[in-house]
């Protein structure tokens, strides 16, 4: 048995319920793969504002840095909407990303067979879609110099600067290629190299970097074409890698194709400990009622096993168990069925027991 340290940050709202469900499944799957997990709970977001007066206490940062991986529920909620901007609950996530040097956001876009009816696409278009979207998280136009609106030569104008350096592009493309090696080995790099200088550097660097991965095929798409292809023929994609701005937009577009936001996981990876969380928020309207869909967090735990603990078999077993439980009809209210967090979790756990 190897031993690994996991920091769990439940956060706020439904965070407590969904992380409890996911930890239970994570422990089971890891144990079956010969990994013993030590789980430490830490506060962030609104819960930390209540306890310490700030959203990301130093004790949480230090524990996160020491851990092998972090599982997070969700932070924020109306209770803390009135706090000062510098201590907003959402700052906890931004702070963790910065402290841990997490420069890549990974979002798998997969639709469980049983949920194809929820997609806005036709069944034949969405069935079998399995995309991994890799978004650069630390650079680009969101971080470049900003000139707020000001009057110049009699007209008001404003600007945002987009800068990417070769090392920034190299590291994200490397990560995308490595992720592709665990999948179908095809990377599409998305840019706007016909009009943007930063995109031309991106494309050249992507080409040079991917050449080091002989088993991986790289191709390029302009972002406008990619946005269209995601709707018209999403099955063509394996891994998509793109910059911060394009990734922000394309990841929401791709997520909505699945029709069920409560189901989708994410990973933030980089220099330090990997951070795993569902893409939905803290859903304060249903918190504490045992109604939350735990699947987004459970699939985040599967990503944690795959990318931070190298336990591919355990990760795949969780994903398969989730698919089967949905086929059996165990669902929560977000999928128009009066189910519960507890029943979904117990069914998934018992299937993992059988598989591994
Ligand atoms: P944030 O700003 O934190 O992203 P949000 O306002 O965008 O939050 P969510 O918290 O994601 O929204 O919730 C949006 C709606 O989806 C709510 O009605 C919520 O109950 C529902 N919802 C979100 N996650 C889940 C889940 N895991 N299970 C069931 N319903 C959910
Ligand atoms: Mg939201």
From TrEMBL:
Binding site for substrate: 97, 107, 135, 224
Binding annotation for Mg(2+): 224, 248, 252
Cofactor: Mn(2+); Mg(2+)
UniProt keyword terms in alphabetical order: Amino-acid biosynthesis, Branched-chain amino acid biosynthesis, Cytoplasm, Leucine biosynthesis, Magnesium, Manganese, Metal-binding, NAD, Oxidoreductase
Species whose genome carries this gene: Pelosinus fermentans B4
Site positions (Important for catalysis): 142, 192
GO cellular component term, pick one: cytosol
Taxonomic path: Bacteria, Bacillati, Bacillota, Negativicutes, Selenomonadales
Record's protein name: 3-isopropylmalate dehydrogenase
GO biological process: L-leucine biosynthetic process
Quaternary state and interactors: Homodimer.
Catalytic activity annotation: (2R,3S)-3-isopropylmalate + NAD(+) = 4-methyl-2-oxopentanoate + CO2 + NADH
Main localization category: cytoplasm
